[in-house]
Amino acid sequence: MREDVQDAISRVDQKRLWDRLMEMARIGAIPGNGVNRAAFSREDIAARKVLISWARARNFAVAMDAIGNLFIRRAGSDPRAAPVMTGSHMDSQPRGGRFDGIYGVLAGLEALEAIEEAGLATRHPIELVAWSNEEGGRFPPCTMGSAVYTGAKSLGELLEVKDNEGITLKDALAQTLAATPAAEKRELNAPAAAYIEAHIEQGPLLEQEGKIIGIVTGIQGLRWFNVEISGETAHAGTTSLGLRKDALRDAIAAINALHELTRDAADTVRFTIGRMLVTPNSPNSVPSHVLFSVDVRHPDPATIARLGDAVEPTVRKAVTRCSVKVTPTLHDDPCAFDPAVVDCVERAARALKLAHRRMPSGASHDAMYMARVCPTGMIFVPCERGISHNEAENARPADLAAGARVLTAALLELADR
Ligand code: GLV
Ligand code: MN
Ligand code: MN
Predict the structure, then answer these.
(1) 81-104 pLDDT tens trace
(2) Which of 99, 219, 389, 393 is the best mutation target for the ligand 1 pocket, counting ligand atoms within 8 Å of the beta carbon and taking the most?
């Protein structure tokens, strides 16, 4: 490894990275060591302001696009060269942890800080991005910022999405854009030379095998749907069962049928109903309307296609008394990362003598959309017992810093080409 690259890597500061993670964890802190920082919420805005203040302290350029993705750039020496990008997200699940997403953002910032301190010139700019609304917990679907950035979805088609309180994405986004300290305007779809995202594994394999770095080879396929069952509300004490159009009863039948559809002896299929809204949601009124989400995942393209395509017919067959509307909200085929970026990450882990393994990702990430527009890869670090989307999410400072070192080395290799 070149001496100047070694110098930059040696400047990755474990304590600075950890202290920043803990500072961000205070924004939206919830009992049990967790974080609730929904996309486009007051807490999200507060986190954006802190990140921008750290970027400005280094004189890095700050820009923002129409969906609120934030870009922090360290200039390169070639004005025509597209940026080598890194990043992740700052929003969290409603009962999320302190590392999901924010680690990738702060590891990217740590890489920029280290490269700046070492005074290295790179040909390409290196750009950190904090993607908007990766989780989709408040405004489904997930990975929204990168989907819009890369042109996979148009912002216009998403603006009327509502959260559980009926607030539209349009209003929450406008508030966020207005509250973010003046950032330059960034166009959507600007070219990128490469993208690498660091993230906690969110599964147990690295820890179980005593490995520090996961060299991520790709992401499994994912389909999301909103299912709406509409019946008729009625008095719980007086309306005979035979006359009811009970939307929740039909929803339960539909969910049971979906569980049958996705039963898998190999335990590879992932199937989740994570969100349900019942109207009028009163103990003594027959439910008139139910909306529930469907999340189904599989690494094999044919299997995820078959399962996703079967969701609507399965629901229609199971529902006997009410009307049904099924709306697909996300359709991501399995993706394989660019072999050159995968190799680059592996070279960095090997050069730093860190125990590593190649692995696919079960969770979705913004890297999935970036992989459609530029050579892309990911770096995983272990998290305690694989726990994630849970307040108890935990990771070791030394592992987080090791991931940031691998990221720094890989970014420098890609940015000099
Ligand atoms: C992202 O958090 C996902 O749902 O995989
Ligand atoms: Mn994440
Ligand atoms: Mn997540």
Answers:
(1) 999 999 999 999 999 999 999 999
(2) 389
